[in-house]
Predict the structure.
Amino acid sequence: MLAPILTRLLKHNAAWVLSLAPLWIFSHFAGMLGDVAGGVPVRGGLEWIPSLGVRFSWYLDGLSLTFALLIAGIGTLIVLFSGGYLKGNEHQGRFFSFILMFMGAMQGLVVSDSFLMLFVFWELTSLTSFLLIGFDHRREPARRAAVQALIVTGLGGISLLAGLILIWIATGQTELSGLLAAGDALRGSPFYLAAFVLVLGGAFTKSAQFPFHFWLPNAMEAPTPVSAYLHSATMVKAGVYLLMRLNPVMGDTLAWETVLPLFGGATLLVGTLLAIRQTDLKLMLAYTTVASLGMLVMLTGFGSDRAIEAAVLYLIAHSMFKGALFMVAGLIDHETGTRNIGALSGLRHAMPATFVAGLLAALSMGGLPLFFGFLAKEEIYAALAVGGAWASIAALVAIAGNALMFAIAFAVGLKPFVGPTVKVPRRTHEGAMLLLTGPLVLAIGGLAAGIFSAVAHRLFSSPMASAIAGQSLTVDVSTVPHLELPLLLSGITVALGVAAYFGQARLRGAVASLLEAIGWGPDRGFDQVMRGLVRFSAGVTRIVQNGRLDVYMTVTFIAVALSILMPMVVFDELPTISGLPDPWFYEVTVMIIGVIGLGAVVYAKDRLTAIVSLGIQGFAVALLFMLMGAPDLSFTQFMVETLSVVILALVMTRLRLSVSDHRPIGRKLLDTTIAGACGAALGLLLLKVTQFPFDETLTKFFEKNSLVIAHGRNVVNVIIVDFRGLDTLGEISVVMIAGLSILALIRIRSRNERRPARRKENA
Amino acid sequence: MRTLIFRTAAPYLTSLMLLFSVFVLLRGHNEPGGGFIGGLIAASAFAILGIAHGVHAVRRSMYFHPMAISGFGLLLAALAGMLSYVFRVPFLTGLWTSVSFLGVKVDFSTVMFFDIGVYLVVVGAITSVALSLEEREDG
């Protein structure tokens, strides 16, 4: 919340101060590493809605903690990077507050224990992502991408909510930690399949799995720090997080082990193929992110111990190298003014530090020895090499995908820097300290984690893998190459990757022509669906809201009459009309006055007379109240009648209606019938109500306590302002809002009246 | 509408009605009356003045925009309720105190301020609607 103010004070240097927040969170969570690595989850919570058994609770095991550390750690670097990247942008303060909001939501998501919290934070990440993608709201593509991301992930969120509710019904658990022990109950439940599909709907949209992948590349309209942070390192991994979290509970079934690898593998292939087609650095990275997410889903789906270890390693490695590469791409864009890979070359002289960061990250992404990415790749092949035909197919898919990703890694991290220096739109120089910190730290981190893999495994990988598998696992792969099948597969991957790197131009052409041959993709499909939706709702609106007030009134009153009369007639609950008590002389007189008033309304020649006559009838009712001993009510009735006559008269003069009523006779008869039915219905309802034995508890309470507790002798008023004060507060808020909206309506009308063309007899 | 008699009588009528509305508001706790009715009376008083002397005169005499009055009333009512938090009792609990003023004991309470808030909301909202409806007639 403080971010905009700080930014105004300190300009872009506010980033240094603001980055302290995530840094503090990071150190806070890092302090828990010891416990969690020892297998003791950290938990806590508060009662939230005890009546529903909903708690505001958190639960940190290896999985949550690793995620939390990634979010906070990369978040720190991203805040620094955006300080430099958006230097001079007038909305930088807003940007910081959005990105910190997102960070809070994402942290909440991964540490949540209760389903409800998980869902709320899940939606919050979608919302903040919407705000960040649409940050440059003046550009049409940015707006479209933001709306698209919101709709896709929002629909997924609803699906997730439905899935979580089904899980709740099936197991009776509202918390993840409780659910972990109830896996068999869930798998055996008849709701399993439905819950499974719904949860997948949430996870697949969030993590951009094929065929929902299309929103992610479009989301690259966001400023680069957002792409690096939300759309590669953290938010899109929320779906993977969810799958990993639910693996011990929902995994180990045929559906799980078929659907996940299938969609994951498809996403991996589609992602890499589309990536090689792009020439924009950011888009290339975006599609490889889609592919990497596919890989993670595929590995999670296999569910074997090694596959889970591989997924863990790959997830950590990916967050680091992809974050770094995105920032490198952003740096290149920021300093040269272009992201087109064909236009970039020879930057190593101008931007040596960026080059180092890019190269290190690319080496990790390519999975070369010594780097953390290499460990991940070794583990992937180790997981897929053993197993049946199903795993072999997956291994082939992984090899193809990894080889293409290898090519792209170097296309982004190496190609712009080598070769002859070319002319670019801006004079190139090295990025500022703020810009360089992020990519360098992440890239070097990837190397360090690879070299000191033993420490990294003990602190992160093993606890995380154990949490996913639901049993204790120890990750022990190291950078020392060992001559086995995985190394051979790695070698093949690298060889293919190098070939793809040098042949990327030809590959790009081939994929492009293939895509043109298909011509239709989910992205275009999204547009078609949206257009259809807009047309459909416009059509419905035209029928339901045709802008004719008399139609609305007729429909409303018919509904009122029917809703009261129908139940009474159908269930035979009509009141019995016993003999009326002998009316008083005054009462008869007043009633006669009322009837005369009504007659005057019906026979009035012009509308003004009719309105005033309506007032007569209202006053008669007020008198009746007075006679029956309800002075407050009659008082109010008097005032309301007076004011409504005045206001109705004023409205009539404004509307420029013709002086007299000229409805055709049929219409008049219809309206009379409806009015009569409404009146009869209300009258019968009141009669029925009075025929029930009157419950005096409340009356007695108010009479007894009015003077004692509330110091008032007027019971009605005491009820209004004291006993039911909250209701009154709500009512006066409504009065005020109604007043404001009427005012707005009148204003709109006055503006239209100034335009002579818009004048109409009745609107 | 704007006969001489009406125009001459309207200001007096309005002042009397306003006075009466405050009276009704304050006595509401023990006798028929209260913020809601008082507000309606005051709103009709302003409507009469508006019909007689035009909207401009009413706006000038009210000084604040009616909607601002309404908003202030809502705020007052809410604050009167919030005061309960200071004394660690549930929201909107009535708090009472008696002040001796010229030998007469006068009761003050948060409930009274709440009722005044209701009064102001009703006056403001209805007057602003009535005035903007009348506005057009002035041309």
About this structure: The two ends of chain B are 16 Å apart (CA to CA). The longest helix of chain B spans residues 110-138. The helical segments of chain B are 4-27, 35-53, 55-62, 66-86, 110-138. The beta strands of chain B are 96-101, 104-109.
